Amino acid sequence: xxxxKKKQIIETLSKRVKSFVCPICHQSKYSFVDGYSVDIIxxxxxxxxLGGLIMPKVTLVCNNCGHIDSFxxxxxxxxxxxxxDSDENNNE
Length: 92
Ligand SMILES: [Zn+2]
Prior knowledge:
The protein has one domain (3-72). The protein has one helix at 3-16, and strands at residues 30-32, 37-41, 53-62, 68-72. It is an alpha+beta fold. It starts with a helix and ends in a 20-residue tail after the last strand. The model is unreliable at 85-92 (pLDDT under 50). Helix content is 15%, strand content 25%. The structure holds zinc ion (ZN). Zinc ion binds next to loops. Zinc ion binds at residues 22, 24-25, 27, 62, 64-65, 67.
């Protein structure tokens, strides 16, 4: 994740969520995970389907209890049309 994208994500989250409070321990100190995570969307629950849909997200971790919260990049409006061409997705 480049610094510009990271800044864009943090700014968008900060605008939409006025204060982050951990639902488990009620502390408000979070760390931003420097990278993307994905959920794999499957039509069956048995086994692992490759090549299907994914839901990209960013993750915050509570610094006190380790509770993890994820936020959809799509809902935040941060998925670009040509995202597959970005450097982060180049596996070679
Ligand atoms: Zn917590």
